[in-house]
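Researcher: Let's run the pair from yesterday's discussion. Sequence first, then tokens, for each.
Model: Starting with the first of the pair.
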Amino acid sequence: MAGGAAIIDVKEPSRGSLGMAEFSVWRAVRQAVPASMPISVALGELKAWWRPVRLPPGCWSEIAFRKLGLACAGPDWRDRWRDLRERLDAGAASRPGTLSAQPDWAAVVYLDWEAARAPEPDAIIREAAAIEDCAGVLFDTWDKSRRHDYDASWGQRIARVKASGRFVALAGSLDLEAIGRLRTLEPDVFAVRGAACRAGDRRGPIDPERVARLAAAAARG
């Protein structure tokens, strides 16, 4: 917030690209920032949610977005994702007077989808467009040890997402140079982790000065 971030994303980077933090961390972050600041939460990968869902009451309170990866999701990923969405919404009672009892979803498309053994990007984009409470699509990388760039084919996919009325968030080890180059794709959100951390270490503490430089780069027309 001090550096000018527009959304606060809660994740546990030691648990992977979309590592899920503990519910207590969600609550602590929500209590630390004003209600006007949107918060998104990472839920890990679909394959990890095979056990019965036990959620604390009100866990979605004042959460704006939730995102779930589809690495190794298998051919029946559509049915399993739909089933999980229904179970998650039914598994956590809301508290009266909350900002959002059921957050919107952000579908996740991995640039390195073949390495992640995730569904083909266009299939996820079509599915996201058909889900009423899917507000946007996050383009990200599964393997954080490698850089994957956005070529012309990704620009076409991004345009299709925007045409469907969903927001577009670009991620994937972005830095100042990448943000400057990718502004022409006109995303709604640039999502960063490592570049916002001290010494560029995605597991390190957030550096507000780095955030300020990233926010300024994202805001330039």
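Model: Moving on to the second of the pair.
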Amino acid sequence: MKGPLFYSKILLFGEYGIIRDSKGLSIPYNFYNGALKLSDNHTEQAKASNASLKRFATYLEGLDSDLVIFNTSKLHSDLEEGMYFDSSIPQGYGVGSSGALVAAIYDKYASDKITVLENLTREKLLKLKAIFSAMESFFHGKSSGLDPLNSYLSLPILINSKDNIEATGIPSQKTEGKGAVFLIDSGIVGETAPMVSIFMENMKNEGFRSMLKDQFIKHTDACVDDFLKGDVKSLFKNTKQLSKVVLNNFKPMIPKQFHELWKKGLDTNEYYLKLCGSGGGGYILGFTEDIDKARKALVGQKLEVVYNF
């Protein structure tokens, strides 16, 4: 048995801001994926995944039955037979490893599930988001539910605010284009919870709160609008501002060895860096108007292009 594939995701814009109602834009990233598998695979990885899924299955039984009901007896019996989540999605990299797992479990074991083939009204999207938020909180302590939603639907998701989300279309890629969104592998695994707690601690400071509202959210919202409209010139202007705000105010979330590279991009305009997810490690997102120049400037770094302008 092998279940359907669920893909990783990239939150292009909105990290931290969506906690405070900024806009956000999340896109599926098909380079990585995961699926539930039943097989005689007894690798250490499969065993660890199976053990973790057993704990998750117990957690799911405690969820509000008005929100979602699972066929837990089927889930438990599959787990007894050695089911595990076979995934190429790196953990702690901000590309939604737990999101894909949550989507796969919901898809296979939820009763009365909302399917991708239905007319996805805003109410249905919000209900799915609430279910996924409750499920994924097992992994993160507190989850918005957006990662699994993206994985489950395999569609770009536009977040207008906490209670207003919609599946959206993004401008088609120009494969010959020099402009690009890319990922850099920091080589460090990032932990979401400690980064979020630093952010929440900073939120007690009035100066930080006003920076978030007047600068961070303002530029994030503008970037989302520019990207969806395909206004590349304005997008790079706003991405530069966003990159600068993050360097000045989110230093703990940027791995130390990237502080100089971050600043270099702002000084030369050859690329701009931003957080991918909560930061602290994992991937860093980059935006450039000329991918060849960016590759030269970032020589020695592993770059993966995810979108071409």
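Researcher: Give me one sentence on the second I can quote.
Model: The chain has two domains: 6-167, 180-308.
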